Amino acid sequence: MRPTLAVFPLALLLVGFVLADEPKGRPPADKPAKAAPEWDVDEFIKDYDKDKDGMLSREELPERFRHNFARIDTDKDGKLSRDELRKGAAFLHSRRRPSDVLFHLVEMSDCEEGCAEEIQRIYAFLRKMDTDKDGKIGAEELKAAREGLAGARVDRIIKELDADKDGKISREEAKGQIRKHFAHLDANKDGFIDRAELLRGAAEHPGAVSPKKDGPPRKKASDRPDKE
């Protein structure tokens, strides 16, 4: 299974520890957001319906829309009706890949110098990752780069929060998400979060920390003794 951008480790917790609880720039609550324009399924059929039967066969669809044909064709008659297209519109486009962000950056670049600098930054980092200079990014090289980024981020956090410069973060020094999940990050329960504990937290997957208040899991009703 290919990892997606939606899957991030607890490093997100470390990245955003100084962010406010409410993101800035939201539209006022009393101002409704503009609705997205509705897709014109009739116009879509008209554009590609070569035999004019009001439906689209696999051959009539452009190749870029065919990958999920069987999924959209719910009645399995080999053609997509107006209703099937309306309900399955989301499956017409291919699934985005994390690497697509680079293609979008190149496509949206409307300048030469400034935009080229951003592409160059990505290129320079990829070249740095390719430690054996074989023109490819191997699994071990990716792992090393990931660990390097996590380590640098953890070091920045400790430098910013460690007021007494003892190399650890106390509960009093913690802020933001670090403070919110302090009990979980403090694995040895000594009242401090050290570099190793922050790195361990950065490597965890979503679900390791409950979105509710950090602490021991609540017992189920079936686990509690019956009241006398």
Can you describe this structure?
The protein is mainly alpha-helical and 228 residues long. It contains ten helices and four strands. It folds into three domains: 41-91, Recoverin, domain 1, CATH 1.10.238; 97-129, no CATH class; 139-214, EF-hand (Recoverin, domain 1, Orthogonal Bundle). The strands form two sheets. A two-stranded antiparallel ribbon has the order 1-2. A two-stranded antiparallel ribbon has the order 3-4.
Task: Provide the descriptors you would attach to this structure in a database record.
228 residues; mainly alpha; Recoverin, domain 1; 3 domains; two-stranded antiparallel ribbon; two-stranded antiparallel sheet; 4 strands; 4% strand; disordered N terminus; disordered C terminus
The chain-level structural class is mainly alpha
Shape descriptor? elongated
| Biggest sheet layout | 2 strands, antiparallel
Strand content: under 5%
Q: Nearest-angstrom radius of gyration?
A: 26 Å
CATH architecture assignment of the largest domain? Orthogonal Bundle
Alpha-carbon distance between the two ends: 51 Å
* Count of DSSP-assigned helices: 10
Number of strands: 4
Helix proportion of residues, in percent? 25-40%
Task: Look up the CATH topology of the largest domain.
Answer: Recoverin, domain 1
Instruction: Please tell me the overall pLDDT.
Output: 78
> What is the topology, as strand order, of the major beta sheet?
1-2
CATH domain class of the largest domain:
Mainly Alpha
Give, in order, the helices and strands.
Answer: HHEHEHHHHEHHEH
Low-confidence stretches: 1-29, 211-228
In CATH, what is the homologous superfamily of the largest domain?
EF-hand
Total individual domains: 3
